[in-house]
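Continuing the batch. This is chain 6 of the set; chains 1 through 5 are on the previous pages. Same settings as before, nothing changed between runs. Recording input and output for traceability.
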Amino acid sequence: MHIKQCVISGFRSFRSQSETTPFSASHNVLIGRNGSGKSNFFDAIQFCLLAPKFANLRQEERQQLLHEGAGAAVMSAFVEIVFDNSDGRLSVEGDEVILRRTIGLKKDEFFLNRKRVNRTEVLSLLESAGFSKSNPYYIVQQGKVNALCMMKDDERLELLKEVAGTTVYDEKRGESVRQMEGNEGDREKIQEVISYIEERLSELESEKEELTAYQKLDRSRRALEYTLYSSELLRARTSLDDLEHARQQEALATATHHEEARETNDERRRVEREMKQSQGVARRKEGEVSAIESGREELMREKVSLELEVKELESLTKSDGETQEKLKEELKEVENEVGKMKKELEKKIEPGFVKAKDERDEVNGKLEDVRNQAEGLFAKQGRGASFRTEKERDEWLKTTIEEVKQVVGETEGKIAEQEDGLGSLRRGIEDEASTLKVAADDIKKKETLLKSLNQKLSGKEEERNKASEDRTERWRSMAELEDQRSDEKENLRRAEADLRKAMPRTTNQGLQALKEIVKRDNIKGYLGTVVDNFTLVDGSKFQTAVEVAAGNSLFHVIVDTDETAAKLMGLLEKDKLGRVTFMPLNKLRVDKDITYPESNDVVPIIKRCIKFESECADAMTMIFGKKLLAKNLEAASEWSKNVDMDAVTMEGDEVNRKGALQGGFIDQAKSKLASYESMKKSQEKLDKLDKDISDLSKKTTTIDQRISSLVGEIQKMEAKRSNLKLVLENSVKEMGVKRTRGDARRVAAEEQAETLPVMRRDVNQMQQQILRLKAEIGTPLSATLSDAERTLLTSIRESEKLLVDELEEKNAKLEIASVEKEKVTSLLNDNLLKRKAVIEDSLNASSISGTATVGSEISDRKEELETKQNQLDKATKAADAAEQRIADAKEVAAAAAKALNESKASLEELKAKDVENQQKLDESAEAAERLLNKRSMGVSKRELYMRKIQDLGSLPSAELKAHADDSIKTLMKKLDGVNKKLKKYSHVNKKAFDQYVNFSDQREDLISRKEELDSGAEKVKELIESLDKKKDEAISRTFRGVSAHFRDVWNELVPDGSGELVMRTALDELEEDEEDNKSLEVSLFRGVSIRVRFSNVGEQYLMSQLSGGQKALVAMALIFAIQRCDPAPFYLFDELDQALDSTYRSAVAALIQRQAQSEETPTQFITSTFRPELVAVASRCYGISHQSKVSSLHSLTKKDSLSFISNLMSEEEAVGGNVSVLPAVDEGRLAESASSVKKKKGRAAGGGVEEEDGDSDEDDSDSGDSDDSSENEENDENVATGANKGKGKSGGGGVAKPKGKGKAVTGKRRSRA
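Output for chain 6:
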């Protein structure tokens, strides 16, 4: 067995130690700088192995063990050791055993192979493996070697006793002594009691004769009392039977009163519900009447207003008919007048006007020609005076001719342009006329479309109004259904409350949560509760029997499989939602072949009383399969016993198959099935109402959508109508503009046609002028006219005068014709035709002109009259319907008020009856209480006499028979006589016999107990003597073993030397030899001294005579000897070689190597060192580093380890560690010198030498001195620069250790690492 691995986490400087290379089974060495955590590593192993210093820890000590480095605070730590158990030394199965100890601020935890164990189990396991508490030297830490060096002889003796295990003997001996002392006290007490009992027995002997006479009289007295008490007991029992019968009768009467009270209470609740419903109905109907009346008033106002409007429109429509007739007659007259005027204008006036105009134009042309000729002659005469020569005149004439020709050309161009324009104008007039015709046709089409659109719009509005009425009616229906649903919800709530009261609260919570979970998660396989899956046959006839038979199973939940049940249970547990019982159908074990009895007295409940689906058959069979419905309780009792089934009566009395009976009063008001049925009916009604409301809501929504659609269509049609009207108005306006433009064009054409003849006449005159001017060219220039010209001029003047007169005459005729034409035209256009258009427009339903006309107004009024009439009809219907609804609502309200009054009257009667029932119940309760008091008194009397009879004890039957036939009076007389005789023996101890027997029994028991204690005391003495003997043997055996092993170990460490342990005794002053000492008792032992020799020659030295290094070597030899005496599976040494020189370190290393690699008893060693000797013989090397307050363990090669040790020694040497080497002296001088060097402070007592203590602590590995026996050198002295202060002193020829700074003392000096 050995340690394979050690995992440390959170322990002191080790924060988290990962697993390293497993330890070797032989020798492992740890190296590292001071403070790196080597000692913490060994403490961790001791902590896990429950070393004494880590056995019981206080809280502050626990806190000190936790890692305190950087980062988050460590709240717990653990140390885990993995043991190789291939040799089976640990009594645990497996080749590998893992032991872990975890520490927190308050408690420890232990784990063995990852399983939790207690401290006792761990201690027992370690003890069985050889980790003895009496020998703690399998772990040697810093300071323990030094402690052994400084031990005195008596302390070494105590150490040997501890190694020998004497503490166990001492504990057992102490316990035995305490037990013996306790037994001695018990023996003394028992002896005192026995003495008292013997004295008391001697006194009781004299009282027995009187007691015999007394007992005879006492038996007679008790027989008389027994007979009297029996008589009284019989009377009490008879009275109790009578009272029980009366109580049963009173109970029946009370049950009857309870039933009447329950029925009255149920009826009262029903009446209160009806009252509440009637009040709700009356309140709703009153509100409905108020709402309808307010609506009806509005409807009446609307109706009256519509009636007035309809009357007014009818009057206007009537007058519109008369106006239309007049307009038609007037139109006919105007049309006749227009025809006459047009005929006269065409046949008479227009031709006359044209003829007069032509004649006037002809005369006017002639007059212009004559005047032009006269002007030409006068111009010719004037040119004769204006020009000097003919040439100038001819030039001017030519120029004038050209100018006139140019004017003629321009005028002719204008005429052509005007003729073209006139043609275009006339064509435009024709086109305008055709356009106006098309526009008129389009307007007529649009008017037709507008009329059709108005009709469609009226139809849509009618449909919308009907839909609105339908929606209003549905809203009323929904309101009524909502009221019914509110009432039904209240009923459902009441039923659910009653059902909740009938079941445990957790069950109700669980069932409610299950419904939500199943609905939310859509869980399949949930079939509901048992009561959900069956229905009662014949209504509520078997309700009580089924409910009693099912019991709490009514609310068990049926599921398809156990997986579904587990899933649902998990959800309930997770959210803490209650508790229910599941019945998984796949796990139910039911008897499929149940044989039911064939009798008229019983029937199976599962077949007669309930119906259920086949999928729930197993669950129903488990609950009702072995339940019978019995005719009465006697039949139930008989058949339950015969067929091993539970039997239930119709009244709910149950006989269990095991013989138990259950029955009594059942309050039907608290029936689970009744509450469930009420809840189920209310739920069904509520579901139906919800469905009706949903359907009605959907239909109402459809109507709303239809109304919205109709409103949208109406809005679109109204917009379309508005657009069409706007288009019509624009078209009419445009047509009027076109007509006006056509009229203007016709006027312009006429004007242009009138100007063309004038322009042509001007052209002719200018051509005549050109001819005259051309004719004048070449004629002689003369300032006067010729005779012919003068004659012509005279003729022209005469002709002009005649033409002027004729022109005046023609103008007068033209004026007359023009006035007549203008008159007729004006009358026709400005009067007759306009009047005709106005009348036609008035008669037309729609005005093309875009202005309001009589016809359009009449048409509008007709439409408005029709609309108002329809509205009036609707308003009349609505008002009548409102009247009818008000009447219906008032009738319902009156019926509700009547029902309310009747309910109030019934409620008062029921309250009075309830008071009466309560009085009866109170009276029954008082009577029952009186009977109960009487029964209590009777029971008390019965118990009294029974107790008195029991107190009398057993009596002989002969004495009882002697008084059996006596009357009570005789018995009382005899009893009085016996009591008088008994007074003579009043002083007699009535318990003398009992006391005598009791005391005798007690004396025998105490004597037996005393003998047992005496025997036990002898055994305890023998045990103490045996323990003392074993203790002495263990000490002697241990001393001999340790002494022998010490000699062997010393020989191994110092081959030329010898060593022994010497037992100092109280007889040492007699100077007896060692052999004689061995035969002495252990009680004479006073101490153990050590004598050693380092060479073959010379004397032996005691510990006090050795140097520090030699003491350390002796201490290690003692440790190895103790370990060999009580071997452990492994050893841990912490800087064991710190005080040794290289030779002794090599010897210790060789010893460890031999013991570790021993073929017979191989042992594992784990050591720490600063020196290369142990590293050289180690099987595996490990280094401990320390960074950021965290220690870590690493695996190293031997080469790296030796290199690290070398560097470390070099660093120590560089710091200034100088060692003084003394010259060789004899061993006595060496011991004296070593002893003087090892002391730090104080003065030597006999030698007068001031010595400095050379003991080493944990962080000073180079302070120890060593003795090199092979070179016979003086012990080295390690002097660190600045390590010691003060000045050295010498005296008595000895050597003083310098306390200054690095001063040589004597001899040679050399530096050593």
